[in-house]
Specification:
This protein has about 120 residues and is an alpha+beta fold. The protein has 4 helices and 6 strands, in the order βββααβββαα. Strand 5 and strand 6 form a beta hairpin.
């Protein structure tokens, strides 16, 4: 499946994805960050992916096209090593609910959380 449009909403921190078959989906920056296809998140072996925590407020700073098959998402926490192929984005949208519930269960099992470990407030 090819992606025809990506639209990132800074305020809600969500990415709208529109596919060439007419399907569309909305994924949060947090969801995309904790499911990054990078080796840092997926691990270097076939075992369970590394658990990424404290990303509830993560945002996307930049989206870079990579050829005609992928995009690089640059997150405001500095993560930029994952290439999100169109195929991988389609898999994420198809399995969004199961992946999210599995992630929440892994957080609970590890006694970890989605919120930042230290509250940081920025005032303009």
């Amino acid at each position: 499946m090819l992606i025809t449009t990506l639209h990132y909403h800074q305020r809600s921190k969500t990415l709208d994805i529109h596919f060439d078959n007419g399907d569309s989906a909305e994924l949060s920056a947090e969801f995309l960050r904790v499911h990054s296809p990078s080796a840092e998140v997926q691990g270097h072996h076939q075992s369970e992916p590394n658990l990424v925590t404290n990303k509830r407020d993560v945002g996307i700073n930049k989206i870079e096209p990579v050829g005609h098959y992928a995009v690089r998402l640059i997150f405001d926490d500095g993560h930029l090593s994952g290439l999100y192929s169109f195929r991988y984005l389609a898999e994420l949208t198809s399995n969004k609910d199961n992946l999210w519930q599995s992630y929440l269960a892994r957080l609970k099992s590890a006694n970890a959380q989605r919120d930042a470990s230290i509250a940081i407030k920025v005032t303009p």
